[in-house]
Specification:
The protein has about 500 residues and is an alpha+beta fold. It is about 55% helix and about 10% strand. Strands 1-3-2-8 form a four-stranded antiparallel β-sheet. A four-stranded antiparallel β-sheet has the order 5-4-7-6. Helix 8 packs across helix 10.
Length: about 500
């Protein structure tokens, strides 16, 4: 497997949450009308768009979300309303005491029980026609009936009752609105805003990247789970970038993408290699159209990166400071020419050391005994290496041994080693004039990457990204990696 960070496939649009509202109530009471408006227009209306929460909630499995029974709901709301009514009357005296729910005490001008029942019956008739919405509409109707009883009394009591009703109505439907806006439909791996990516589409994107870049999913269950979550995160980042590119008008034409694809095919498969390319696509389940879309995406993201980063400059003072700070890394480090023999256990390693000390040539023992197939035939030759290019234990021993000396045996994760230092090349200090051009390019690239990753981090944190449980990464807001949001670009 060639490790690559990736972006994946085309996405369907997520249907807007909402449904026709239940029927229109005939209640004429002013306070009742105000309650419906203040609660976010949760009052029923004919044929208009519904606010979130007006319809039964469907979960990821496509089933209606369980709700409390009407009896339970009525009891709960009734209790709260009764307590609120009592609180609304505190401080008043005499006959002006607040009525309880269902009381016959009514002031002149306040609707009677018959008006309330007519309003509820009218709403109930329409709810019967809209059976899918009956439960939520029933909750609102019960709340209105209770609030209408509360309005009997002073104007202050009416205001208190109105505020209470708004809270109760929002409490009755607000939870449903939140759930519907954050839930994912069945079969979805993730969503970014209104764009949903299904698990099948995610698999298709992986197949496309397999054809373009050799991305291979692992087979081990633990690694496959991690790969799936990483892939979902890359798709989410890719989708955010796609949306930003479209918003900025960064569109790639079919011809431009086709020209890039033709060059890619020629480089990877040689002149006249189109048939081999198509066969490769078939082997991994990808299509030429999906590859073309991926190329368009990468070209658009490349242009987006240019816009986000903008011009980057490094002045001479910055360059000199960076040189002083990195002088040791910029120079040529000490190099050592090293050989090794790899065996399976300590006893075998000690036997090799004994034979070397007895005069057996290192190269001969390496060909006879070493388990390292890549260096055995060359007498265990590793060539020149820096210290940090070697296994830590082996490197420490190799860079402390004298030229021509045998060292070991020592154990590493790969087995038991015996080594020899053939030659030492001393380090060469860096000269400013020799490295200033390459150092300037390095500093410019670092600045550009910092700008890009800062912008991308903000985009991820502020983006409306949701994951299904099986695809949620460990840290959804963390950047995917050094090249976050980008895959290796096809040849230009």
């Amino acid at each position: 497997m060639r490790p690559r960070s990736g972006t994946f496939a085309d996405f369907d649009q997520l249907d807007e949450a909402g449904a026709p509202r239940p029927g229109t109530s005939t209640t004429a009471d002013t306070a009742d009308t105000a309650v419906g408006e203040a609660a976010g227009d949760v009052r029923p209306s004919d044929g208009g768009p519904a606010s979130a929460g007006d319809e039964p909630v469907t979960g990821a499995a496509g089933e209606d979300r369980p709700e409390a029974s009407p009896a339970d709901t009525g009891a709960a709301t009734g209790d709260h309303t009764t307590e609120a009514a009592t609180a609304a009357g505190e401080g008043d005296t005499g006959t002006d005491a607040a009525p309880t729910v269902g009381s016959d005490v009514m002031e002149e001008g306040a609707p009677g029980d018959g008006d309330v029942e007519a309003a509820v019956a009218d709403g109930a008739d329409h709810d019967t026609a809209e059976s899918d919405h009956s439960e939520t509409a029933g909750r609102v109707a019960r709340l209105r009936r209770q609030v209408t009883s509360l309005v009997a009394g002073t104007r202050i009591r009416r205001i208190v009752a109105l505020v209470l009703a708004v809270v109760l109505v929002l409490g009755a439907v607000g939870g449903f609105a939140w759930w519907r806006l954050t839930a994912l439909p069945e079969g979805a791996a993730l969503a970014v805003g209104d764009v949903v990516v299904t698990s099948d589409e995610l698999d298709q994107r992986v197949q496309t990247l397999q054809a373009l870049y050799g991305v291979e999913p692992p087979t081990e269950p633990d690694r496959l789970d991690s790969f799936r979550r990483d892939a979902a995160k890359s798709v989410a980042v890719s989708t955010l970038l796609d949306q930003e590119a479209v918003a900025r008008g960064l569109v790639v034409s079919d011809k431009e993408a086709g020209d890039v694809l033709n060059r890619f095919v020629e480089q990877q498969f040689g002149p006249g290699g189109r048939a081999a390319f198509v066969q490769t696509l078939g082997n991994v389940g990808a299509s030429e159209a999906s590859v073309t879309d991926e190329i368009k995406r990468q070209l658009a993201v490349s242009r987006l990166t240019d816009q986000v980063v903008g011009p980057v400059t490094v002045d001479d003072a910055e360059l000199r400071t960076a040189f002083d700070q990195r002088r040791d890394q910029l120079g040529t480090p000490e190099l050592r020419s090293v050989r090794h023999i790899v065996v399976g256990d300590e006893a075998a390693a000690k036997d090799v050391v004994g034979r070397l000390n007895a005069g057996t040539p290192f190269e001969q023992l390496a060909r006879e005994r070493s388990l390292d197939q890549s260096t055995r035939d060359s007498g265990g030759n590793l060539g020149q290496a820096r210290r940090d290019q070697l296994d830590p234990a082996f490197g420490d021993a190799a860079f402390t041994a004298s030229p021509g000396a045998v060292f070991g045996p020592l154990q590493t994760e790969r087995g038991w080693y015996v080594g020899r230092v053939d030659a030492v090349t001393p380090p060469v200090p860096a000269e400013f004039d020799q490295v200033k051009d390459s150092l300037r390019q390095t500093l410019e690239a670092e600045k550009a990457l910092d700008r890009w990753r800062g912008w991308l981090g903000d985009a991820i944190r502020s983006g409306d990204v949701r994951y299904a449980d099986d695809y949620r990464p460990a840290d959804p807001e963390a950047l995917p990696g050094p090249g976050a949001g980008q895959t290796p670009a096809p040849p230009r």
